[in-house]
Amino acid sequence: MLIATNSEKIDISLEDKTSELAKSFSRTLHKGDVVYFNGEIGVGKTTFIRHLINNLQQLNKINLTEVTSPTFNLVNEYDVGNFIIQHYDLYRLTNYKEIKNIGLFENKEEIVTLVEWPEKIKETIDNKIDLFFEYNDDLNKRYLTIKGVKNKK
User: Fold this and answer.
1) Model-wide pTM > 0.85
2) Which helix (H) or strand (E) element contains residue 114?
3) Which of 20, 98, 124, 141 has its CA 20 to 30 A from that of 8?
4) What is the CATH number of the domain that holds 136?
5) Measured distance CA(11)–CA(92) in Å, rounded
6) What residue numbers bound the domain in which 83 lies?
7) Cα separation, 126 vs 81, whole angstroms
């Protein structure tokens, strides 16, 4: 069964609100889910991902790990108990051939895949969720909009 996961713009200017949303969102994830994180540098993508991963680790009584942006490594992997999360950051990749070489989506049915800078991917992925992070006009506030459809597990 497919479920819609669309939202209005949600104000995430305060980190407490980002943490609360990430915790709620983390409870909806299952093996095979793909989540795209769209938005400018510094808008809160990695902060959201850190709260998401640490919440799942806490729920499953696993030691919390430091969650950083994998800009230089390209991918970081986290055990959250029920599954493995692969967190990709495609920011510094310059062409699609580089993306193919890192094995993105190779084992996607066995893991949860989180991708920052997904606009660099050419192939279309069905059954994904897009999170759009943005600033307001004067950069004082940040917002999150969730769009997508995923199979209910």
Assistant:
1) yes
2) strand 111-116
3) 124
4) 3.40.50.300
5) 28
6) 2-151
7) 25
Bridge partners (DSSP) of residue 129 are 35, 148
Beta strands in the chain (DSSP E): 2-4, 10-11, 34-38, 75-79, 84-89, 111-116, 128-135, 142-151
Kindly state the tokens that stand for 17.
Answer: 């609100």
Q: How far apart are CA 133 and CA 9, in angstroms?
A: 9
Would strands 142-151 and 2-4 be described as parallel, antiparallel, or unpaired? antiparallel
Of 147, 137, 145, 143, nearest in space to 14 by CA: 143
What would the pLDDT profile of 88-132 be if each residue is shown by its tens digit?
A: 999 888 877 787 788 787 888 889 999 999 988 877 787 789 999
Give the bridge partners for 150, in sequence order: 3
Residue type for position 132? F
Neighbouring C-beta atoms of residue 103, cutoff 10 Å: 12
d(CA 99, CA 52): 24
Picking from 10, 2, 4, the residue whose alpha carbon sits closest to that of residue 133 is: 10
The number of folded domains in the chain is 1
pLDDT at 80 over 80: yes
